[in-house]
Amino acid sequence: MLTGTNAFAFYYLPIFIFLNLFLLHGYAATCNITSSNPLSQNEILISPAHVFELGFSRPHNSTNQYVGILYKNIAPRTVVWVANRGNPVIDSLASLKIGSDGNLKLVDGNEVTLWSSNVSVRSNRSVAVLLDNGKFVLQDGLSGQWLWRSFENPGNTLLPGAGLGYNLETGCLLWSEELIDMQEFSSGGEELFIRLASSELAHGKLRVDVIISLTTVSCIIILGALVYGLCWQR
Questions:
Q1: Which residues 6+ apart lie within 8 Å of 163 measured at CB?
Q2: Most CB atoms closer than 10 Å: which of 116, 151, 200, 229?
Q3: pLDDT in tens, 196-209
Q4: Contact 88, 80 (CB under 8 A)
Q5: Where is each Bulb-type lectin domain found (predicted)?
């Protein structure tokens, strides 16, 4: 029969451990980022159905940290988007927060901005949430309007609904390498630019029209040359 201190430990220690685990889990996982609820390095942002998570990650054999989105329950762990690809976190006090201007900001321990959503925001009441399709969005806290989306700057994994960055002046698509490969580059990451003709991104009908027109003109020129050659021989 248990008495005194032993009885207390036997009956209440499991409850104490359970409550601590519960509280730690609640502290480590959050559902949004607000001006009063930044994301620290020991926390993760989770999508509603626990499909994706966003947090601070460190590539293998690297001391640098990056804020990225990963599949939560799929092995191997796959990074689908990275915020600070070219500007890694090197201290332990960095956080992802809503700044005074309402933008998402990754700041170090000295409040130096390492990355920002950098969009026009009316107030600092904006909220950042992670959706079950892998999209990380900044919303107006009052209207719910999307102010910024991670899909506008996709990573190594092209998720459904995401788009490629396109420069109308240079005709370039932007595609970035995966976070896990960053340790191979001294700069902390590489960006791959693929140059395409503007017609490559045009609507299908326009592209078909261009091909038909070029084919028709080529046939006319060849036919004209043959007729001229036959007439000249006579």
A1: 151, 152, 154
A2: 151
A3: 454 454 545 555 56
A4: no
A5: 30-151
**End-to-end CA, the chain:** 124
Structure tokens at 29: 């996982």
Instruction: Tell me how far apart the alpha carbons of residues 105 and 139 are, in angstroms, rounded to a whole number.
Output: 14
Ramachandran region of residue 222, left (φ > 0), alpha (ψ -120 to 50) or beta? alpha
Where along the chain do its domains lie?
Answer: 31-153, 202-234
Place of tokens 């090197």: 90
Over its C-alpha atoms, the chain yields an Rg (Å, rounded) of 27
Distances (CA, A) of 63 to 56, 69, 89, 104, 230: 12, 19, 9, 24, 76
- 34-65 pLDDT per residue, tens: 999 999 999 999 999 999 999 998 887 788 99
CATH architecture of 31-153: Orthogonal Prism (2.90)
Answer yes or no: are the C-beta atoms of 232 and 224 closer than 8 Å.
no
